[in-house]
Write a structure and sequence with these properties.
Helix content is 5%, strand content 54%. By secondary structure, the chain is mainly beta. The strands form 5 sheets. The protein has a 22-stranded antiparallel barrel. Strands 1-4-9-10-7-8 form a 6-stranded mixed β-sheet, with no helix packed on it. It is globular.
């Protein structure tokens, strides 16, 4: 880069000398050749200390730039997308790119529901208090970058321990009225994908719109996917100070669920299926209006009003892996399937203000605001479906086994203030105050209606503080502490049988994130090394209890606490061979020591202490190591991802159960090979070989959806794509 700047400076000097010489002697004109400067944008960066109305000073952050990333964008393979983010645990629920299921620091990866997930600042979690999973599935072709802020950002974002997972989409083309982009891909197992977008600017209006479609037969039998998504952004900017943006995102897919396997089934053939009549279909809309207003050079305002609307549909023969779905010889038909439908109605309005001010010689930045949420999750379950084999939500009986509402009203106020105490050192204390409640009501056919209503209140403050010490322009120490909480969600308080009761004094999970780290870059070397601690109190579970008459029942309540200590390391070194050739090595490695403290769980008819047991689905080591070679417009990357063993339950059961629901999850290592070639400014080619050595593995034994047992991950697959921009 220094050579390029030197060349530019030299050319500018020559140009000035030439112009001066022309004035003196017009007959002696020097003509210079055009100089074109090219460079590669780093695929991993850090967020600035302040960006708009968001404060990131003293926090651990990562920015993944997808434009220059060698990764399987079409199927959005998480281990490749997040390869340079230490400690990302990937749950391969399905291998067709339908959802991203990740976590950090020993949290639950199910649909990323330990994160506050946003798109362009808009919350996409289906229901923060009822079902915080993000069923909205954005195509990665539409994404410009992914921003990740660890748990110490909880004060600004809200109710999750994981922090912020933010997808920033591509923005309108400001240089023309109409620009076109088309990305088309094909691969093994029937993969076909197309993404088409238009964008442009006309006067004070700009727009971006896309349509995405992807189909795949899947790696396993009976695992077909039919996915489509649409997005539209319209922005009106009457002046430099004001911007009005309306957005609508929608995603929809039908996934044929191949069913769980037992351990013996997995060993015999991991591609086999135990179900051919099970389907899952989330159809989600995310509308929003965003107002950005620069009140003055010191004050900025951002107001976002948004909603998450839609349904989560499923029709399944919902039995353990060792129960076969076969035709009954007496009726010559399959058994009736179970139909479940969640209706999401989640509304959020969030106003944020950032203001720069001076106290004596100390410059400060205040970021504050409030957030209002009104959610109504209508859950209809245990419907009697058809005996057919296609995707059909028809009920053969009109009554639902469960027909309930989970309504939440919540208001939150937050404020963080960055005090620049010296040119190098800043301190940022903050607070978030939550006030609201969730109300469960409705009916369950097998349960007494008077026992069902439950009220959960959310009344408490959260405190935090971050510090940042700058060493020069490219290195800094950071440290932070932030309290966090996770609401009791819908599934935690639904009695599964008549033998279950719900603790009416259930408490939200509460705790904190703490971290300290050192990051920077020098002479081609980049690094970020940190230590963290995550305290997670009031975990939810079931205990054995007896009533006054001596009757046994399962008690859904808070079972205890856990503590995770760990270290996260990212190191990358780039060695240039010439101005157009370079080799880059990196390691992204995390160690996690996640243990239960004072906690107990049910085992048979007893309650067993799990003190010092491993927290489930938390491997001790996660390490991803890669190398990339760039030569002019060609790039090739190799990635090795290693994940250590983990346990499926708090009891740390090693021997697999008959249905595969509990037992050890073995360690696994995977090689990926990705390459890209930019043919011209308008055309780019990609080739991805995923799981090069065809490793047969699985990442988790889920306890609920999509069914208890082993869910095999994908073996070797290949896909290729061509991207055209006009």
């Amino acid at each position: 880069m220094k050579k390029l700047f030197t060349l530019l400076s030299f050319c500018m000097v020559i140009t000035s000398m030439s112009q001066a010489q022309t004035t003196i002697d017009s007959l002696n004109v020097k003509k210079l050749n055009e100089v074109t400067v090219t460079g590669r944008k780093s695929d991993l960066e850090r967020l600035p200390k302040l960006k708009g109305t968001f404060l990131f000073s003293g926090k651990k952050t990562e920015v993944i730039n997808l434009g220059g990333l060698n990764a399987n964008i079409t199927e959005k393979t998480p281990r490749q997308l997040f390869a340079k983010v230490p400690g990302v645990f990937v749950y391969d629920m399905d291998g067709s790119g339908n959802q991203i299921n990740i976590s950090t620091r020993g949290l639950d990866p199910h649909r990323g529901w330990e994160f506050n997930i946003r798109q362009n600042g808009i919350i996409t979690n289906s229901d923060m208090y009822g079902y915080p999973a993000s069923h909205y599935s954005l195509p990665m072709e539409a994404v410009e970058r992914i921003e990740l802020v660890r748990g110490t950002g909880a004060l600004q974002y809200g109710a999750q321990f994981g922090g912020l997972l933010h997808y920033v989409t591509k923005q309108p083309d400001s240089t023309r009225v109409l620009g076109l982009e088309s990305v088309n891909a094909a691969g093994l197992f029937g993969l076909l994908s197309t993404y088409n977008a238009i964008s442009g600017t006309k006067g004070k209006f700009s727009y971006y719109a896309y349509y995405s479609k992807r189909v795949s037969n899947g790696y396993r039998d009976n695992s077909r996917t039919d996915y489509d998504a649409q997005g539209f952004l319209l922005r009106y900017q009457p002046g430099k100070a004001l911007s009005l943006t309306a957005e609508l995102g929608r995603s929809n897919y039908i996934y044929q669920i191949p069913g769980p396997l037992t351990d013996s089934m997995f060993q015999a053939n991991p591609r086999q299926s135990t179900r051919s009549r099970n389907y899952f279909n989330p159809d989600i809309y995310v509308p929003s209006i965003t107002v950005d207003y620069t009140l003055s050079e010191r004050t900025k305002i951002k107001w976002v009003t948004s909603a998450v609307l839609g349904t989560r549909n499923s029709v399944q023969f919902d039995k353990p892996a060792n129960v076969a779905d076969v035709i009954d010889l007496a009726t010559l038909a399959y058994a009736s399937r179970q139909v479940d439908i969640d209706h999401f109605n989640s509304y959020t309005s969030e106003l944020r203000v950032s203001h720069n001010y001076q106290i004596g010689s100390v410059s400060s930045t205040l970021v504050s605001g409030f957030q209002i949420m009104r959610n109504n999750l209508h859950r209809q379950q245990l419907g009697k479906g058809t005996t057919g084999s296609d995707f059909d939500l028809t009920l053969t009986q009109p009554e639902w086994g469960r027909d309930m509402h989970f309504k939440t009203r919540n208001v939150a106020f937050f404020a963080e203030n960055r005090f620049q105490l010296s040119p190098a050192f800043s301190l940022s204390p903050g607070i978030r105050v939550e006030r609201g409640q969730s109300d469960l009501g409705g009916k369950i056919t097998y349960y007494q209606n008077e026992e069902l209503p439950t009220v959960i209140k959310h009344h408490f403050p959260l405190l935090g503080i971050n510090a940042d010490y700058q060493l020069g322009t490219s290195q800094n120490f950071y440290a932070g502490f932030s309290q966090a909480y996770r609401p009791v969600i819908f599934k935690d308080i639904i009695p599964a049988t008549t033998y279950e009761r719900i603790d009416k004094d259930l408490e939200d999970a509460k705790g904190y994130n703490a971290e300290i780290g050192f990051r920077g870059e020098k002479s081609g070397l980049k690094w970020d090394v940190s230590w963290f601690q995550l305290r997670y109190n009031n975990r939810l579970g079931s205990l054995n209890e007896t009533d006054e008459a001596g009757n046994f029942y399962l008690y859904r309540t808070n079972i205890g606490n856990s503590l995770t200590n760990g270290a996260e390391l990212f190191v990358e070194y780039t060695h240039p061979f010439s101005s157009y050739s370079q080799l880059t090595f990196f390691t992204s490695t995390a160690y996690m020591h996640a243990r239960y403290l004072d906690a107990q769980v049910r085992q048979g008819n007893e309650n067993i202490s799990v003190r010092n047991n491993h927290v489930e689905s938390t491997p001790s080591w996660i390490s991803r190591n890669g190398v990339t070679y760039n030569f002019k417009l060609f790039s090739i990357s190799g990635l090795y991802s290693y994940t250590a063993k983990s346990y499926a339950d708090a009891l740390n059961t090693r021997k697999p159960s008959a249905n595969g629901a509990v037992g050890l999850v073995p360690a696994y290592g995977i090689f990926d090979l990705n390459a890209s070639y930019r043919v011209s400014r308008q055309v780019k080619l990609r080739v991805n070989i995923n799981n090069l050595l065809d490793k047969q593995y699985f990442t988790k034994r889920p306890t609920f959806y999509p069914g208890p047992g082993i869910w095999p991950s994908n073996g070797r697959s290949v896909n290729a794509s061509i991207a055209i921009s006009i």
